[in-house]
Backbone:
């Protein structure tokens, strides 16, 4: 089964995109599926039609790999069967390699924070 993996990133540099410290406010979202990477700008995904997490879910991830996530998004994603992992590594490539080798930990629920409203 092929998985669709979503990782928030800071720049659109393909596999070398630096992983973002943000989730919903990341400048870009990388979607990896079948060995291919597609990168969407935050503005392409977040159009203000509802909660950020709803709009991010529209990308159809099976897995999210992130450094941080708000509590509401965390619970909605988990309830929809999306697995969430804690990002370890500087770039999209490093994070994906660690994920494929089973080295990433599931994102701990206690690290999910209260939503931030900018």
Residues:
């Amino acid at each position: 089964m092929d998985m669709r993996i979503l990782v928030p990133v800071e720049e659109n540099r393909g596999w070398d995109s630096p992983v973002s410290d943000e989730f919903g406010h990341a400048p870009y979202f990388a979607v990896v599926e079948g060995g291919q990477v597609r990168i969407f700008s935050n503005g392409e995904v977040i159009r203000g039609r509802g909660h950020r997490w709803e709009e991010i879910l529209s990308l159809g991830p099976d897995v999210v790999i992130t450094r941080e996530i708000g509590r509401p998004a965390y619970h909605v994603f988990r309830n929809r069967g999306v697995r969430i992992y804690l990002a370890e590594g500087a770039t999209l490539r490093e994070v994906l390699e660690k994920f494929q080798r089973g080295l990433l930990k599931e994102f701990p629920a206690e690290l999910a924070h209260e939503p931030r409203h900018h």
In short: The longest helix spans residues 71-79. The chain has one domain: 5-111. The longest strand covers residues 28-33.
